[in-house]
Amino acid sequence: MNSKVKIGNQIQCSAVPRMFSRLRWLPEHSSADLFVAGSWADYVNSVSLFKCSRDPSCEDGMQIVPELIAEIPFYGDVTGLEILDEGGGDATQPQQLACSTSEGYIHLLGVEREMDRDNIHQLHQYETRHKFGESNAACTGLSVYGARLLATAGEDSLLHIIDKSRDLVRSYDEGNECSFRCVEFTSSTDVLASSSIGGIKSYDIRASPNKPSFELVTDIAEEKENVVATCISHYPNKPQFVFAGLSNGMIKVWDLRMKNHWPISMKGHNSTVNDIAFAKHDASIMFSASEDGEILQWSVNNSVLTSEPDLARIVRQQPPLLNERRAINSLDTNRTQLLAGGDCHMVYLVDTISK
Hints:
By secondary structure, this protein is mainly β. Helix content is about 0%, strand content about 55%. The strands form eight sheets. It has a four-stranded antiparallel beta sheet with strand order 1-30-29-28, with no helix packed on it. It has a four-stranded antiparallel beta sheet with strand order 2-3-4-5, with no helix packed on it. It has a four-stranded antiparallel beta sheet with strand order 6-7-8-9, with no helix packed on it. The longest helix is centred in the C-terminal third of the chain and has 6 residues, at about 300-305.
């Protein structure tokens, strides 16, 4: 299938009043035209619910405009926002999502589809939080697995595993006075967390004692460069293939079946990689976003992923989709569009299926 995104496809942008740290489409069984966005850098920030509607003033009727329909305020920056996967269940029940903040708190939110208006509200604030003594410590990373598991990483060197209904399951202490940067579930029992001094550690939440089972190296020993993983993702339905965006603009790929082998390194960005996302309709399309406002498209070789090893042939770079002057912090995809936003007070919608 040759379904790569072409520059000639629609790239639509709309001005928004805030800078966004995280954006997520709501699942399409809930609604194909709703997304949530978490803001940062204001005294009072918010998680906002937007509905994508066609602009009636546009001549061809094709311009999509995000309309703010509800929001919930938070003190501190929104640092994480993830949708809990409830398996396409009861659309009459609130769609649940997890939210983390720079105040160290983790919240469970609900989006309700109502007859006259959709709404978003807080369902629960967890007792578990990140802190230095009694002072707040930022929650720097958030990941969810399925409908009930949450993982949070913080400046306090702690990694928390939370069951949605039972609060804290267990905690891991980095113990060397360095913070965690980001976190990613690869299965219901395995979590990857990156350290602010470099390296990605893997934790098996069934194992005892509370120590990492292995570590992936991100820095370059010969150059004595402290390279940090700033975002972690995995290939859809093949979690053994881990993709990490780094502080030096590189993307590294590991096959966890051969974790002691050197990863492949892919150079595309000139500054910190902030996010990685795969197209929903075709996982061979990957996107990455960076601190200097660039969005790149990558072609992922499915046959290599299936038939194994030569990792060097897995990914090749396609032309840039977008280049803004300010950071693009977050990406997400639904079946037809890429959603992007960051520090530019804009939301971008990019068609991901050629027309």
